[in-house]
């Protein structure tokens, strides 16, 4: 089979190499999956650089999220077991962790439903307790993680403010359903949030960016608001001023979705049921901005790393894939 492999750490576009490889052999409790679509995530780039908390042994195949097909023909969503990731024709996954791919979504959309939407659901509902009528501020609203939070916020009945960088991404954020869109290149984010909320600020802030975005979050969050820390796509990990959180009465909430897979896997399945229902009702639909062949995976991972994509980029090992079964 063909598979992308990383033999040395560095930028994805430089260290990912497409090669012939043996099909991975499932271990105890694992299944072999034919990859129908693999979604590109920012952690794929971080793993190539050696900067992610999970560091698979070299050589490894990136790709942490797929829609695959079991040997008995079932269409499923899975997180491949590294070092044999999803940017290949075949991958292996833990049988107990397989989730049924929603009938309402095609392969590329189903692959994009998992990590980003699970993270959004846990962050907004489990951690922040977002309620209908509240205001949600989403950083990087046109990106893969942010776009999922926008849709989930709207589905929950919140007013959603999206922060983006550039006119093209602003257009995408509006199409996703943001009630207010702030181009951080054109406007002061904090002032714009205060203007949009009558000076009150946002009840919940969803931050996958960190760095300067977190500083804006602390200034833009409302009294008794909640800041959900999801990641650090900016490359800068902030150091919160806890005295500021004290005097302003807001909460700083961490969200590492992967822990739920080991600490409370039943809750992950419950979340998937909720997401499947929302997809069936048309309340959410992953934004897949590009569908590229397997040969284009390295370039796709690099562009996601560079922050020039919107929504999700899906890698399709077989050109016929991408349509619902």
From TrEMBL:
State the protein's name.
NADPH:quinone oxidoreductase family protein
Q: Does the keyword Oxidoreductase apply?
A: yes
Q: Which SMART domains match?
A: PKS_ER
Q: Record's Pfam families? A: ADH_N, ADH_zinc_N
> Which top-level enzyme class is recorded in the Swiss-Prot or TrEMBL entry?
oxidoreductase
Recall the GO molecular function terms of this protein's record. oxidoreductase activity
- Residue limits of the Enoyl reductase (ER) domain? 13-315
The protein's superkingdom reads Bacteria
The family database entries (PROSITE patterns) matched by this protein are listed as: QOR_ZETA_CRYSTAL
Q: Is Transport one of the keywords? A: no
Q: Which UniProt keywords apply?
A: Oxidoreductase
Please state the Enzyme Commission number of this protein.
Answer: 1.-.-.-
Query: What PANTHER family does the record tag this protein with?
Result: QUINONE OXIDOREDUCTASE-LIKE PROTEIN 2, SHORT-CHAIN DEHYDROGENASE/REDUCTASE
